[in-house]
Specification:
Three copies of one chain form a homotrimer.
Chain A: E1 7-12, E2 22-26, E3 29-35, E4 41-45, E5 59-61, E6 64-66, E7 73-74, E8 80-82, E9 97-98, E10 100-103, E11 106-110, E12 133-134, E13 138-142, H1 146-153, H2 172-175, E14 179-183, E15 186-196, H3 200-203, E16 212-221, E17 225-234, E18 246-258, E19 261-271, H4 277-307, H5 320-336
Antiparallel strand pairs in A: 1-11, 2-3, 3-4, 4-9, 5-6, 6-7, 7-8, 10-11, 12-19, 13-19, 14-15, 15-16, 16-17, 17-18, 18-19
């Protein structure tokens, strides 16, 4: 069961070639992604209406795609426009076309009722497309349900343990209590951690003589997008002393592939003023290392859950944000039912 | 659900060693194949009646087979003739024996009621055993249901697309409308394609100055056997100018291994008058390349179908033969039910 | 369905490091094994009560273990003693602790009601811990249900066929009829085989001029433990001529991992008086070779059974011990139901 009436990130725009076909499964549905001659992204059902072969095994012809099995040709609206050997095309010969939006290098598809597609609900992933921010785009594939990854992102107390040697560096993150607020389509989590050692990857960005005050302020929005400002400044300094020494903005999106597998699109932006390409590579490498730590843990957790799917979890104070977000998801599912 | 009362091709005869055991699963049943001292092929249930170990993990002893687990010995009729440590053998100690026929190098087993086994229904795979025809025997394993492969073979319009660079070479094949006739136990498909370029593999057989007229005339018979005459002659010539420049005969058989996997036995015969071993190698290589193209497409199709097993297909004019054949299969299944 | 109120071998004691965590799944339950500072083995449920991550992905801290996901800390009783960021720990925060016994290098866990754990029912695996016996500890993993392996061990007629070239060497073993007696928690199987060639691996232990008399006397006890005296002496000699030329004692235990996979712990002890380390290596190599022969056969058998799970087996005289033991298992299961 997935929410349908929302925008899912289905690709980084660089994944879709100028000439050629790209396939990805989203919420259990096979999608074909390609570009028209004008460069516009098209998302069609990747399943020929005739014998159900994937159109992605065929070829692009101008703004159209031709099935590689028996040669049916579809235009960018999903309508079949040619059937070899037939003088006319029956009106039922078409595949589903999904509304598309491209915003700051994220390609979104609307998986539900096209009439409800509303670009006003696209997330504000500004740092993916702002010349004042540098980043490298990331993608990971998970063999776990998406919700376990969302749980992870909604409780940063795991930074102290999963990422002890990478993003975390101190148990104080787990000990700090964040504030949780309801925002439209999600929750806002704000966590301030005072007087802690800078984490290993901050040290590769800036020299620090002593402890720092860190902050993590993020929105987690339907269907499963994280937009986060984070950073730190030397303990004892305040806003009146200038901006934080380290400032980062991160955009991350989880897109279910199937009930038990997930696409994870992510980036960590660094202000251009703060450093060059070397720094961006460095931050990206840290992020990938940490996200692999998460994936190892969540994959292990999923394996244990699969052994006894009805084993109860014990809710604790640190689960507040994720419990609230699961409630928002349940409400959205009920509203669609 | 499989048709049982019919002959299934279970092996090429060269696959069964003179001395040794050969195992193959057919319509979900494990078969043991071996030869008596006299060379006759025996097909037994590959499952010892005692503890269900596969007899193929044992050894051949004369015309018998001995289970490698606890030493029960079975003769070529499937009767247990010795149990180590027991003076007498209980009458229930036996494994099923399947009627066998060997015809032109194809080994057939009758999977249903032995009393109904009738060699008159064996297909006329003459070119597999005629000194006037050369060929190399082929085998492919599919991880898909057999019916999707039968569908492929019953509609050659796919030649224009799946085999564009191998067997096909022109959209005219898809555009030509074949005639479909009912024949005993199946359908006959006759397709004539006029004035088209010779396909790449014809060119390796014969020089052609210009376009040719091609023909494909085949019977597709229960359970899933294709017997085809095909070939071509220069456009503008007729039978009165002599036989076709290229003449081929192909025998192909699909045998379900399980609900979701299939054995594919095939050959393409070339008249000995038309060329020697080099040509046969060449034709075989083309065929294997093309059949791998089919397998890639059908495997992709099966993957898409598995994602939504109830997705409807859209019947089109080109599906006429396969729809007729599916009806013949359904009738046979109903008759056995 | 597994028997719960019994001791299962869960590890050789050398498998559990002095410092570190060891994970093993037993009867479908994930177990964490580690040692206290004092060296005592602890077995806990390997599933954090909070979000169900495996504790084995965390770290040992003194006598405690800390979850690697959100940092909950558990003591050796399974009680949670610290939750980062929480002043007090809710009483429900705990994981299951399993009673443990270590006897002669086998580590046992009691998987049922702790109040019923009774070390009097531990098997007498004396040769695993006696300075007068040498051995090398063995472990094999099976991808089959445990009961098929127990069946194998309860009928040594298979030695003549599965182990013809290793432990067996003669059909006379299968032809000899063992006596079967009921003993507490199991059966005793005694098989004497007179006047047979020494098996290949005996010859590597002792020179023999002619045939020997062999014996195999073993108890097979709940849940699935084999304790066996075996050996042989030159045919024509008797106890009054001195002890058998070859004397062995073997301890073997099957522990279900899941319904379809099994842990197999085994050793073959040789009296120190009978030879040194070279001999022990030799015996171990023979045993591993033979046990791989068993695994190949049982895995093949399980594959055939999976194709038709309701295929009946044909009970024969040689199945007497295994039928009796299956009845004992069924009684134990019924008693727990």
């Amino acid at each position: 069961m997935f929410i349908r009436n929302c925008w899912y990130v289905v690709a980084w725009d660089h994944e879709i070639p100028a000439d050629g076909l790209f396939a990805r499964t989203v919420i259990g549905e096979p999608l074909l992604l390609y570009r028209t001659e004008g460069g516009e992204v098209v998302v069609l059902e990747d399943r020929c209406c005739h014998r159900l072969a994937p159109l992605s095994a065929g070829r692009k012809e101008g703004d159209c795609v031709r099935c590689g099995y028996h040669g049916l040709k579809f235009d960018a609206s999903g309508a079949c426009v040619e059937i070899p050997g037939l003088a006319s095309v029956p009106p039922k010969a078409r595949v589903r076309r999904y509304p598309v939006a491209v915003k700051n290098h994220w390609v979104f598809a609307w998986m539900g009722d096209p009439a409800l597609a509303d670009t006003a609900t696209l997330p504000d992933n500004f740092s993916c497309g702002d010349p004042d921010w540098h980043y490298k785009p990331g993608y990971l594939h998970y063999d776990t349900p998406w919700a376990l990854i969302a749980d992870n992102l909604l409780d940063f107390s795991h930074l102290s343990y999963v990422h002890e040697k990478t993003l975390g560096g101190t148990p104080a993150i787990a000990q700090a209590r964040p504030t949780i607020e309801k925002v439209p389509r999600g929750v806002r989590v704000s966590r301030h951690v005072a007087d802690v050692p800078p984490p290993p990857f901050y040290l590769r960005m800036k020299p620090f003589d002593g402890n720092i005050d860190r902050h993590f302020i993020y929105d987690f929005l339907l269907p499963a997008t994280l937009l986060m400002h984070s950073g730190g400044r030397p303990t004892g300094t305040t806003a009146s002393d200038g901006p934080p020494s380290v400032q980062l903005h991160s955009c991350q999106a989880l897109t279910p592939e199937t009930e038990n597998s997930t696409h994870y699109f992510f980036m960590q932006g660094v202000p251009t003023a703060q450093g060059g390409a070397g720094l961006v590579d460095n931050v990206f490498a840290s992020l990938v290392q940490a996200f692999n730590e998460d994936r190892d843990m969540i994959t292990a957790q999923a394996r244990i859950i699969a052994m006894k799917p009805d084993a109860p979890m014990l809710p604790l104070a640190m689960d507040s944000a994720l419990i609230q977000f699961r409630r928002i998801v349940d409400e959205a599912l009920r509203a669609e039912a």
